[in-house]
Specification:
The protein is an alpha/beta fold. The protein has one domain: Alpha/Beta hydrolase fold, catalytic domain (Rossmann fold), CATH 3.40.50.1820. Helices cover 38% and strands 17% of the residues. It contains 12 helices and 11 strands. The strands form 2 sheets. It has an 8-stranded mixed β-sheet with strand order 1-2-4-3-5-6-10-11, with helices on both faces. It has a 3-stranded antiparallel β-sheet with strand order 7-9-8. Strand 5, helix 4 and strand 6 form a beta-alpha-beta unit. Helix 5 packs antiparallel against helix 8. The chain is globular, with a radius of gyration of 18 Å.
């Protein structure tokens, strides 16, 4: 992807680069807002959904905190290496990237109270970081539906594998080039996946994830093969096994599981995940799916603001 592309426009955020091994460059953003001396909040995004997709949420949060976010590798304005996709997009790399991003934020903001919120992919990376290192750099965190794969013998394992294989296949087969963000929105808005999105959220998503090709159209900044590889690479139970070692309570937030025991295995396993991290809480946001930050933005915002001083 282009070094000049960014998932959040210049008018909304300052941008810098965090260098990682093997030449990977991660784009980090500082939202432009009224809070200069106060709590610091870092936000991490989901797979295939670059940071700017959450712009409405981030802008609201920036009224109460100094907000940072970033494009994970393979997304938005960050590098998308393809030499060894399976290794490049391992959970361990996302975890190490998160640690480096958090350190960058700490270096810039000093001793200001530091908080973390994340959705899906980067929520799982946070859990892995805490279990792996025995510490985390933030004072508190709220995690929205981290996809924590259970062990092989777990009753939800088969469903988790089946659903992950399905979403990986869907990602791999995505159309990658579009005439414009508006054309993308028109094509997607009738799909069940986006059926609960609030007004304007799908356009935010399109603008954050489509970059100009230089040929008059636009392409997905997270290539389909990379999005699919990320889904496929995270099917081991290492994070689940390490939850008992996570060093602090977590504010978990999940969507409402289908009453008929439906396909969202992440929501169904959420109570168990919360119990495995000592002292944690779980809140359920009714009438939402795994994409709850786009379906109930105000309620998601309130869950994040609740942890700030």
């Amino acid at each position: 992807m282009s070094e000049n592309f960014r998932s959040i426009p210049h008018a909304k955020a300052e941008a810098n680069t965090v260098l990682r091994p093997n030449g990977v460059r991660l784009k980090i953003y500082r939202l432009i807002g009224p809070v200069q001396d106060g709590p610091v909040l870092l936000f991490g995004h989901a797979n295939g959904i670059a940071a700017g997709s959450y712009l409405h949420l981030l802008t609201a949060l920036a009224r109460r905190a100094t907000v940072f976010t970033f494009d994970a590798r393979g997304h938005g304005g960050s590098s998308a290496p393809v030499t060894n996709i399976e290794a490049d997009y391992s959970l361990e790399n996302f975890t190490s990237d998160l640690e480096a991003i958090a350190q960058t934020v700490r270096n810039e903001t000093g001793n200001a109270p530091f908080y973390y919120a994340a959705h899906s992919l980067n929520a799982a990376a946070a859990l892995r970081l805490g279990a792996r290192a025995g510490r985390v750099p933030w004072h508190d965190c709220v995690l929205f539906e981290p996809p924590v794969f259970p062990p092989m013998a777990h009753p939800l394992r088969a469903l988790a594998e089946e659903r992950t294989q399905r979403v990986a296949k869907r990602a791999r087969n995505r159309r990658s080039r579009w005439p414009s963000p508006e054309a993308f929105v028109e094509a997607q808005k009738k799909k069940l996946l986006f059926g609960r999105f609030e007004t304007g959220r799908l356009l935010d998503y399109a603008q954050a994830n489509l970059e100009p090709t230089g040929e008059g159209d636009q392409k997905l900044a997270c290539p389909p093969e990379i999005e699919a590889a990320i889904f496929s690479a995270h099917q081991n139970a290492i994070t689940y096994d390490g939850l008992i070692d996570f060093p602090m309570p977590v504010r978990f937030v999940a969507s409402e599981p289908d009453p008929d025991g439906g396909a969202n295995w992440i929501a169904r396993i959420a109570p168990e995940i919360a119990k495995r991290v000592s002292g944690s809480t779980l809140h359920v946001v009714k009438d939402t799916s795994h994409l709850l930050p786009f379906e109930a933005t105000a309620r998601v915002r309130d869950h994040i603001l609740a942890m700030l001083p």
